[in-house]
């Protein structure tokens, strides 16, 4: 799992050294991390509700009742295993929205062939009529050709009886109730045997409340899976597997006139994320809230777009944002200002605050990761609501709401690892589960009177920010708290520093986690630690110089264009445009600053060209909130611009993971499981020990070994050491090779944030020396 590193401290923690005139970079919304979003007000704990014996495809609600349609033939009480307690319900059932109990008075009998199913449900504005679509031929013994209208109170069919010559997938009712828009795989629509009879309608059409065919007739070239009407009635959105609307290229989704079906509402270019090598993006779900439509794509073909996106509706519809999680989005719903999504999200490397593809999922069938997620309506950023279901194929397939609860349907058989088939209700409010206890903290003492705790945090399926309370064993009063942001795929590694402890005393510590309502049990106790009586013998700068670096750029100048070399070698660098001097530095106890890099042009580059070393170490401190990645430090063939040869680099991926890469001549990498774009200072070291025929890579972050890798020797070429940016084209770590959004190369090859105290050595530093360098900075200890 990835982890987000946060530095917590009590009041006695030392602050970073500052200088007069220290500046703060301006906020750049497109490149910086979002703050943790609050809980969405929908519980992650499902009600104990009735369930179905097969897939649920459609859900609608009215008057405290949830109507559920699908391929099921029976329903059963909560907790009953399949085949027990079954009550017949043919493709349609009703449950209490408050309790999930079966509404026994609602029992229409829908008939058809062995492939019969209900795929679409919608309720009239007055809440009295339930419109039903799918693949069936009768209701309660009356002929109904894939369409029917029922009383919401009794389930009895009304006289409304238009016919669709083919499957109906979606129904949307206008706000006045006068028009019922239909989408599916039919090619004719109307009233069989009376009046004008069936008329041509290619995958979409509309009727009124009497069943009479309306003039609305958009022409699609493939099936429609979703129809939605703008609240002001100005346009109707259609989504599906089509590539054209009314003969014009409009893959996957588009808007048409609500009366004629003509394409009178233009969409800006590329409004639907698409890729020319993929089939149309197969928009499976559309939900409109206010003046914004939210659409989810299933994708057709490996790596094709199957995330979700938002469209601002108006005289011209415009793309607002897109979320690039891969995983066949099937269902969306808006509740309490959040967008809830049903999918099988398995790769969200391109979604802000997302997670990368699990390498174990690259062969054989998909192993879906997260079936339930929520997102910000403003920008599509993933939030923290992460209950889960299983799924035998795709899904969950459908979501609906009464304004506060989430009603869920699909082909799942478990919810939160508990048996629950086909249907579930997530009520309003908070869940009932406390966070699990954190692991035992690791504690060191390298400075007089100071204990430094490190522990891996936990996550909540609803709350992004958890509070960790630290205790010394043997004392009931906590010594302090620290907060950290968590996702289940990004657990925080939290630092806490306690000072003014008696030298020579010995202590252990424990930690609890709280979401504000529920508190975990205490963690196991740390191993006992004896508190030091002396500070480290050498300062950070002295410790670095004692290991004889090839050069040491403090990057602490406050004026000029030369990056001085603090080593005896005079290997200076040059500040290029896009760098700003005089930012707070990472090293405590030293009058020094750092340099800020703007993420697009900022660069410090060597003034001398050298041969790329065979054995080397690269180290530096960095601080960032970027979500666009970028190179921290590396070696390249060009002094400025984009190098043609480039490696021996440490760079950040979009989500904050670090990568150490060397070309041998194939690209060899070590990727951190943790993320480090939390706005705190971090220390990175990459080492390479070479022989004539082999090499060994190692990556360290904050004094901890991330990983090692055996390789061949590195390629040798002449070039320049560069800090802040260089080419990264081709450094693709995506386990799937590529996807429709690109690769796991960072969005930006240049780093956005502060960097200080960069050094390069002609040897591979030992783990002991890396630990000594980290310990020499009192800020972290």
Give a structural overview.
With 781 residues, the protein is mainly beta. The protein folds into three domains: 109-143 and 156-405, Lipocalin (Beta Barrel), CATH 2.40.128.630; 442-530, Immunoglobulins (Immunoglobulin-like), CATH 2.60.40.10; 537-780, Jelly Rolls. It is 2% helix and 37% strand. It is built from two helices and 61 strands. The strands form 17 sheets. Strands 46, 47, 50, 51, 53, 54, 55, 56 and 60 form a nine-stranded antiparallel β-sheet that branches. A hairpin with a 5-residue loop joins β9 (117-123) and β10 (129-135). The longest helix is centred in the C-terminal third of the chain and has 9 residues, at 767-775. The chain is elongated. It starts with a strand and ends in a 6-residue tail after the last helix.
